[in-house]
Structures are given as structure tokens and as C-alpha cells.
């Protein structure tokens, strides 16, 4: 199948060709015709599958069909995303794909001044990409009119629920025209009961599409585990990077503090590194990401939330400096490599405290991850396992690590006050299910 045979407009085909895409990815081939026909869509697809173009291209096609002939532009498409980075990336994509169309888009998220956003909105845009927190700030200040939205996209819906955005999403939905008079698209990597409930609430007779199962992404990635003592992980990481001559590696830590400390230590080892996480200013995060993408920096150390949705083309190496508390996050993390058909390598440094986490991950993958061995780094058998700090604990514990994240200036990305309220108010079953994920929110 080609983009042409799907029936996309010439302006979009030109933009897609300039991006270097030869044919639609599987999720694009399935989703684009459905959206072009005007149906609601429930799509199972994670970052790396090409899902962004899967909803953006038909969305632009439909908007261009009835482009505004004069008068002030109205927001006709709203794309909601959980994080600032993802919002920025989708914004870049929308801009690139709409280059030859008379459509204007903008991105709004927190952590930056609201005033330039207000003036852009005042001038009028057709497509808005937003994180929920800042969007509601605008709604509260009456600097936004969502009453003309024709197409709503909820991207990474599972992550939005994990991050406690359910109330914010409901508030946003209340600002839109009725669900029957909009086209609604929901993308999610996983389908919990909560997601299904949300989908039932705002989709009209949706068509379903599913990109390759999560584990199929993992299959293209060469995965290895190195068993190593906690105190020697940094040394081993430096050696792997130096000996392997790795020039671009994304490293995951469990905590913000751990990310900072590791980046500092790697710099002392002579490896250029920076950390990104929710406590860093938006400017620092953007600079770190750009430095990493341009090749000026060798190592980017990130927590799960900061790294969610990062699209760095052909990222060859991902390292789990610490295993995630939630097995699904392992799949998300290693999915940062081997993107869009490329192969990649994912290495996990596992100390004795993390053996249970590794077993949980292997159960999810349905197979064991091969074990590598580097001489001189064998674990000391006299060291006994200790409980993991910041592990599967409930939200109260997490709040201690989450100070300063609850304000709106945080881009609506990490807002524990709101989240906790939500988890306390929700049914006990779903609250219990969410707890392991909430353990991750404060990091
Ligand atoms: P996404 O899942 O939307 O984050 O996209 C992942 C990556 O795939 C991005 O770098 C896109 O630019 C790239 N991509 C999207 N569609 C295609 C395509 N049809 N052919 C090749 N690469 C693509």
C-alpha cells in the first residue's frame, strides 16, 4: 500500500515524501482510511509505530477539505498529550505535514510563559496541541475557545490516566461540542479497564485498530542483562560506553536524584552527559534533548516520565541503569531504540535487589533476557538483597519525593496533588491497580 493509494491530498503526499517516508507503517495503513471516512477510532499503538502521522495526516486532510475561507481561524482540531516533550514533537510533526496546506497550528504546555501562547491563540489557529494542565489554565483565563472543535485526539491515553489526568480530561471534554458532533480518536499503548471506560464515554461507535503487539517491538531489539553490584553499576556503564564506542545512549534511572547524580559522575568519567526529568526547567530539558539529538552529548540520563514519547531517530543504545518498577515500562523504555525499522540494543544493569523486577519483566515478555558477562564485574556473592527504595509503594510515600511538582507551571506534567485526589476518590479496585504506576510518578 502507498500513501497515494490511501487517497491523501497532494499537499500531504508532498510533505510525506519530503520526510523520506516511502510507505505507510502498519498502523498508518489501518488508521488513515478510517479517519478519512470520518469514523471515531480506538487505536492500540505506542510511540515508534508511526502513530503520530497515523492521526495527523487524515486530520489535516479533513480540515483542509473545509479550510476557513477568511475570518478568524477557529480551533477545529485538538490534540491532547500527557507531556510537554510529546506535545512539542507532535507540534513539529503537524507543522511539517501541514507545510503546504493553509492550516495553522500551535503547541501549548506549561513550564513556559503563558503570554506568548495567549497572543498566538488570539491571532487564531486551526490545530491545537496541548497538555491538559496548561489548556485548563487558558480555559480558566478565557483565553481559549474550544467550542468549534471538530476533531479530538487523545494521544497516549494510558499514560494520561497513569499521570492522574482523568479529571482534567473530563473538564476539557466539557468545554468541547457534544461528542456526537465531533470526530474522536483515542490512541493508547495498553487497554486497562480505565481506558475502556474512558473510551466508552467519549467515542461514538469507534473502529478499532491495533499496531503490532508491544512485544513485537521488543523482538527487534537485542536485549541483554548484566548482573552487577549496585555500587559498581556506574563503573560498568562507563566501560560499556567507552569500550563499545557508543556515541548516543539513553540511560534510565528510577529517580530524578539518581539521574542527576549519574549524569554528574559520567561527566567526571569524561563522558558528556545531561539529565532530564520533571524538576528541570523546560529550557534545560529542551537544551539537553537538542544537544543529545545533534550528537554534541553522548549520554542522556532520564526518568520514565521525562523520556516518555521521546522520538530520537535511530537511537542505537538504551540502558536500564535501574529496572523500572512497572514491567510495562521496560517495554516502553527499550522501545526508544529500534525505531521505524532500525535495530537497536537494550542493556539492563541488574543488581541483586532487582531480581524480582527482572522476573516480572521476563514474565511480561514471555521469555528470558539473555545474560551478558563482563570480566571483573561479577556480583559479590556475600551481598544480600535489600528492599528497593521508591519501589512499589503507595502515593503517600511518593509525595515525599514529589515536592514542587504540583503547580501548574509544571506543564501539567507532574501534578501529584491532583493525582492523589483522583486515586483516593476512585473505586478501590482501580486505585489499587494504579498504585504501582503512581510509584513512578514522583520520579
Ligand atoms: P511515532 O510513533 O509517531 O512517534 O513515529 C516514530 C518515528 O517513525 C518518527 O521518527 C517518524 O518520523 C517515523 N515515521 C512515521 N511514519 C513513517 C513512515 N511511514 N515511514 C518511515 N518513518 C516513519
Description of the structure:
The radius of gyration is 22 Å and the shape is elongated. It has 20 helices and 14 strands. 44% of the residues lie in helices and 14% in strands. The protein is an alpha/beta fold and 443 residues long. The protein has two domains: 208 residues, P-loop containing nucleotide triphosphate hydrolases (Rossmann fold, 3-Layer(aba) Sandwich), CATH 3.40.50; 222 residues, P-loop containing nucleotide triphosphate hydrolases (Rossmann fold). Strands 3-4-2-5-6-1-7 form a seven-stranded parallel beta sheet, sandwiched between helices. The C terminus is likely disordered.
Overview features:
443 residues; Rossmann fold; 2 domains; 7-stranded parallel sheet; 14 strands; 44% helix; disordered C terminus; binds adenosine monophosphate
Amino acid at each position: 500500500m502507498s500513501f497515494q493509494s490511501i487517497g491523501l491530498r497532494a499537499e500531504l503526499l508532498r510533505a510525506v515524501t519530503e520526510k523520506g517516508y516511502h510507505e505507510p507503517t502498519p498502523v498508518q495503513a489501518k488508521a488513515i482510511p478510517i479517519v478519512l471516512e470520518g469514523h471515531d477510532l480506538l487505536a492500540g499503538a505506542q510511540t515508534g509505530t508511526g502513530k503520530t502521522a497515523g492521526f495527523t495526516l487524515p486530520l489535516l486532510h479533513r480540515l483542509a477539505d473545509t479550510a476557513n475561507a477568511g475570518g478568524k481561524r477557529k480551533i477545529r482540531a485538538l490534540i491532547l498529550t500527557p507531556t510537554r516533550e510529546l506535545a512539542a514533537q507532535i507540534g513539529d510533526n503537524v507543522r511539517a505535514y501541514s507545510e503546504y496546506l493553509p492550516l495553522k497550528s500551535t503547541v501549548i504546555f506549561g513550564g513556559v510563559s503563558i503570554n506568548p501562547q495567549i497572543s498566538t491563540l488570539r491571532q487564531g489557529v486551526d490545530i491545537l496541541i496541548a497538555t491538559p494542565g496548561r489548556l485548563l489554565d487558558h480555559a480558566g483565563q478565557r483565553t481559549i475557545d474550544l467550542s468549534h472543535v471538530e476533531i479530538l485526539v487523545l494521544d497516549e491515553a494510558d499514560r494520561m490516566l497513569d499521570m492522574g489526568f482523568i479529571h482534567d480530561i473530563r473538564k476539557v471534554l466539557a468545554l468541547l461540542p457534544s461528542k456526537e458532533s465531533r470526530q474522536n480518536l483515542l490512541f493508547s499503548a495498553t487497554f486497562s479497564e480505565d481506558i475502556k471506560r474512558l473510551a466508552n464515554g467519549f467515542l461514538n461507535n469507534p473502529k478499532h485498530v491495533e499496531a503490532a503487539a508491544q512485544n513485537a517491538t521488543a523482538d527487534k531489539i537485542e536485549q541483554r542483562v548484566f548482573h552487577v553490584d549496585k555500587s559498581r553499576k556506574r563503573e560498568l556503564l562507563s566501560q560499556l560506553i567507552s569500550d563499545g564506542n557508543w556515541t548516543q545512549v539513553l540511560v534510565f534511572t528510577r529517580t530524578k536524584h539518581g539521574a542527576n547524580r549519574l549524569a554528574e559522575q559520567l561527566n567526571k568519567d569524561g563522558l558528556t552527559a545531561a539529565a532530564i526529568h520533571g524538576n528541570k526547567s523546560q529550557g534545560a530539558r529542551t537544551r539537553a534533548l537538542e544537544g543529545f539529538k545533534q550528537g554534541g552529548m553522548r549520554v542522556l540520563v532520564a526518568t520514565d516520565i521525562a523520556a516518555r514519547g521521546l522520538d530520537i531517530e535511530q537511537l542505537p543504545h538504551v540502558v536500564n541503569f535501574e529496572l523500572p518498577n512497572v514491567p510495562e515500562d521496560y517495554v516502553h523504555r527499550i522501545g526508544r531504540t529500534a525505531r521505524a525499522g532500525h535495530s537497536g540494543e537494550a542493556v539492563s544493569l541488574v543488581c541483586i535487589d532487582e531480581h524480582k523486577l527482572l522476573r516480572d519483566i521476563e514474565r511480561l515478555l514471555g521469555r528470558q533476557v539473555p545474560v551478558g558477562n563482563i570480566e571483573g564485574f561479577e556480583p559479590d556473592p556475600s551481598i544480600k538483597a535489600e528492599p528497593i527504595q521508591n519501589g512499589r509503594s503507595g502515593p503517600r510515600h511518593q509525595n515525599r519525593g514529589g515536592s514542587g511538582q504540583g503547580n501548574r507551571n509544571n506543564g501539567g506534567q507532574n501534578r501529584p496533588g491532583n493525582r492523589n485526589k483522583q486515586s483516593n476518590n476512585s473505586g478501590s479496585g482501580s486505585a489499587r491497580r494504579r498504585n504501582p504506576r503512581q510509584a513512578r510518578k514522583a520520579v
